[in-house]
Amino acid sequence: MNTTNAPDIGGIGSPHKKLKKSSGTWIDNVKQIGRDYVKNRYLLLLLFPVLIWYGIFAYGPMYGVQLAFKDFYIKEGIWGSPWVGLKHFEYLFTASPQFPQIMKNTIIISFYQIIFGFPAPIILALLFNEIRFTFFKKVAQTISYLPHFLSWIVIGGILITLLSPSTGVVNYILEIFGFDPVYFLGTEKYFRFTLITSAIWKEIGWGTIIFLAALSSIDSQMYEAAVIDGANRWKQTIYITLPALMPVIAILLILRVGNVLDAGFDQIFNLYSPAVYGVADILDTYVYRIGLQEFQFSLTTAVGLFKNVVGFMLVLTANFIIKKMGQEGLY
Amino acid sequence: MRLTKGEKIFQWFLIVIITMLCIVMVYPFLHVLSISLSTPAEALRPGIHLYPKEISLFAWERVLSTDSIWRAFGITVFRTVVGTLLSLVFMSMAAYPLSRKYLPHRGYYTTFIIITMFFGGGLIPTYLLIKSLGLINSVWVYIIPGLVSTFSMLILRNFFMGIPMELEDSAKIDGANDIRILVQIIVPLSAPVLATLALWAAVAHWNNWFDAMLYMQDKTKITLQLLLRRLVIANMGDPMMPVPTEEEDPAMVKAAIIMFTALPILVVYPFLQRFFVKGVMVGSLKG
Amino acid sequence: MKHSKKKWTTLTALLLSLVLVLSACSGGNSGGGNTNTSEGSNTGSKEETVAQEEPIEIVWANNFSSPEADGNYVQTEIEKKFNVKIKNIKLERWGWKEQFSVYLASDEIPDIFPIDANETDMATWAKQGIIASLDRAEIEANMPNYAAAVNEFDSGAWMVGMVDGKNWGIPKYWPPGNDGFIPGYNKGWLENIGYSEPPKTLEEFEDVLTKFTKNDPDKNGKNDTYGMSARGKLPIQMFTSVFTAHAVSPYQFKLDAEGKVTWGAITEETRTALKLLNKWYKDGLIDPEFITNDNGQINELFVNQKIGVVDNAGWVNFNPESGYVTKPALEAGIINTPGKPLVGPNGDAYAFAYGARQAPVLLGAQVEKDEKKRKKIYEILEWAATSDEGWLLTVKGQEGVSYEFDENGFPVAKPDESVAAPKLGYGSFYNPLTHIDISKQKYNFDSKMIELRDEITPGIVPLLDVLGPVHMESKSQYWGNLLTLQDTYLIKSIYGEANTDKDFDKFKEDWLRSGGQAIIDEANKIYQERKQ
């Protein structure tokens, strides 16, 4: 397996070079395409139902984006509602009393998650990789995947029990060591910390899989050569292991940065309360509240569009930077 | 393998660290399980709960004798099994053609699909679509709108791309068409990656509550997670009824519901893990 | 290159047109789907209406006691009696609004809207053109008994439905909303700390809380109790007994010293109350988990002897059958004994109350144009709210099956699960107006309950919002954010992350600046108008 090759996830930028070179006339080309389609009819037969599904379920609702520039009146429908230009965006960026705080919360939580949450599984993977007792390693890995499989609703329920200041085990232990009980889920000071920590706890084990896969494909001869050169474990990690992981890290980082405005709706929605709205209210929870509870669907769509566009640009930018740095990009 | 003294110390150090990590991973579940089996007073005792001091089956009896919980369980199993299987079929149907370099207009089709990873229409148009298709209040609303995960499909496509062409060519000489090749050659070769994607899809199905909340007004067809959410997290009151009238579930009943929802997945995943570890490896790193 | 570019453009054009066609389909379908469903459900009843007129279809949405199945007992009885066909939109008690919002947005407008819609929803929907404006005179003419009952109890209830000079619903109120919250105490604990009866003043209350916390009131030899907790998940119900002793609820409009309307949260009374609560919190009298507690936790803490006071309950919660606190406590051998509102530093003693007025029952805009349907709905609601037959059927179910009269003529519900409200469809799903006709109260409370009420409530003065529910332009614009601001500050100031000096000033300033001033101005305008 060639690990330096990034997964070719995208198709953008690689339009079909396989079709016949454009030498003949326009009609010849159409004929050629027709022949190609007939020849590959079974492949196309497989593909088309899925394309139709995409047409219906992914593209079908896209016309709704126009709501971001309209005032939605139910009776007029989406097409018939009156255009209002950039009104909703203007409101968000100039008038809304909440939006600046919500943007700030989203970005802060997301950045914490990248800074602390992203490296955590890499470190754990490196640790797993060093363990020589195969059985222990396997059991430990299995256990570490466990929380990944549960929903935030389940984990929310568990966290409420564990973190309770009066009956929770975490505060019980803190008190043994002489600390005052801390209300992790209820106070602004600790809420983000709780978010990040619980997210790491949930995903750290699962996150190691992809890095372990990359690690297992490193040529063992490289380590042997390094040992002969007198490199210790630390140096081997720095000079062999980490560089070998770089392509994977690069791609995952692009994906993560592209989603920087996704600070984790499921998690926050199932853990927050009015007491911590000030630090915990993010774009998605805001959208949920104003859309589904306050009936402001146009504003909701505007926020969603803003999120999509920013996310898309971030992915392209991250992709560009990573290519500049000499790594294989995503597209 | 022989280890030097320094390496041995390092190994023990690792074992201690990793063991502690495992405790942190497992303890919360033991705690909740233990509370679900405790008496009410014991359930409120601060401190560590590894096992119930005095076993009370009250909470589990109550949970297991509640119709709505079993109904939600049945619906959730249905959506997980059927939804996962159909997802795999659909994703294979798209991934295979897109993995063949000679597919005409392959780049455009791929782009057509990838764009959907970044842009969507939003809640209301999606709801309108689902409604116009008659999926509101139907259990198929759990399955059809989320049939294909683009990310998973691309991983599958990447895996298919790595399967040597020779196998396919020889089958073609024998007169097999692409559909037969997919079913008889490609799919069997892709068992690990398909197992991984199946697990992803199954976990997503099991844990989803949002679609049930939006599209399901029929209480008898909601999913287990939504029921759990309503029972455990979102028992918020509202001003209409100033004085509370309903009885709330005590802590150990809530704990039992949590465990009831979590257990099926916890029991299943260790057996699947050898597939998914292998699957992630081959699926994501093939160029 | 040139050619491939061309292909690219043609293909893009193709794709785009495909998208447009598809989306046009889905856009168009939603309108069509509407008519389809109504046709579909009409067909079912064709056989029985040979000579009769076609039954009118009524789409009935509610989020209270939603029946399990369509075609339940109460529904079929109503259908038979009024020659209608009811289509149920059964919403959840909690979280109904999310479902209902998308449902409305897809242009499915029910004929009767859910009970829990509030006056802000009403205004939004009125502006959206999806609810019917109803002529008061017409309601009075078609629902004479009902209108008489309203005018007798509170003719001001008609004002709640006014938006832009029109009336948007059938007035609704809920008299128990006038019964305030009163504190309940663990009787055994009170005795153990030397109180023969519940505390009367705020000072005594503080003493009780202190002793509940520090004097081992449950005599288990452990220091594991708090004085009280609170419902932080619904801050309007949080520590009401302490706020009302200062003659304020942070969530109500009140009059200031100059007779002007102001908002409770920004008054000095609230500051003083918060200061006291913060002191209690620091002294450890308050369960620190109050921040995220809901009734379930409060109930559990009281029953398991961790707290000794619950102050978000009304007098009905002190009956031995009340699922909230009293019954579970009794089962654990604890008596929850009711106190009186606490007398505060200025001699005020009030019980926080929501008030009886509520947003009216809303009807879908299509009803405005359909006189036959409108009259039919009036007829059904009049019957359900004011006739014994209608009321008993919709609220209590089937005589002899789900309830039976006792010797005093009181309908006693049968405990049998198989005839419970969701099975037969009684409760308040088909009757959003259960409490309008006061004469029906004889069916709500048996003699024991009336005894309990007469024992507990005399002398209790409810603390009510000076305006009650009323539509305000400024409120619909700013309210959500202001409430969040307030919830957060109140909780933070109690547990001490914000102080009650500078931070209170800052909160007040923020609140006024983020739209609060506009709301107070509008509130004063409305207040003045009403006075005239």
TrEMBL record, chain A:
Residues 1-21 are annotated as: Disordered. The chain crosses the membrane at residues 42-62, 107-128, 149-173, 193-216, 237-255, 302-322. GO terms for biological process: transmembrane transport. SUPFAM superfamilies: MetI-like (SSF161098). It is a multi-pass membrane protein. Its main location: membrane. Residues 103-318 form the ABC transmembrane type-1 domain. InterPro entries: MetI-like (IPR000515), MetI-like_sf (IPR035906), UgpAE/MalFG_permease (IPR050809). Coiled coil: none annotated. It comes from the Bacteria. It is found in: Cell membrane. Gene3D superfamilies: MetI-like (1.10.3720.10). Keywords: Cell membrane, Membrane, Transmembrane, Transmembrane helix, Transport. Belongs to the binding-protein-dependent transport system permease family. This is Carbohydrate ABC transporter membrane protein 1 (CUT1 family). It comes from Paenibacillus prosopidis.
UniProtKB/TrEMBL annotation, chain B:
It is found in: Cell membrane. PROSITE patterns: ABC_TM1. Residues 73-269 form the ABC transmembrane type-1 domain. Keywords: Cell membrane, Membrane, Transmembrane, Transmembrane helix, Transport. GO terms for cellular component: plasma membrane. It is a multi-pass membrane protein. It comes from the Bacteria. Pfam families: BPD_transp_1 (PF00528). InterPro entries: MetI-like, MetI-like_sf. The chain crosses the membrane at residues 12-30, 69-96, 108-128, 140-160, 181-206, 251-272. One of its GO terms (biological process) is transmembrane transport. CDD domains: TM_PBP2 (cd06261). Belongs to the binding-protein-dependent transport system permease family. This is Putative aldouronate transport system permease protein.
UniProtKB/TrEMBL annotation, chain C:
Residues 29-51 are annotated as: Disordered. SUPFAM superfamilies: Periplasmic binding protein-like II (SSF53850). Residues 1-26 form the signal peptide. Residues 35-44 have a biased composition (Low complexity). This is Putative aldouronate transport system substrate-binding protein. Keywords: Cell membrane, Lipoprotein, Membrane, Palmitate, Signal. The keyword Membrane applies. Pfam families: SBP_bac_8 (PF13416). InterPro entries: Bact_solute-bd_prot1, SBP.
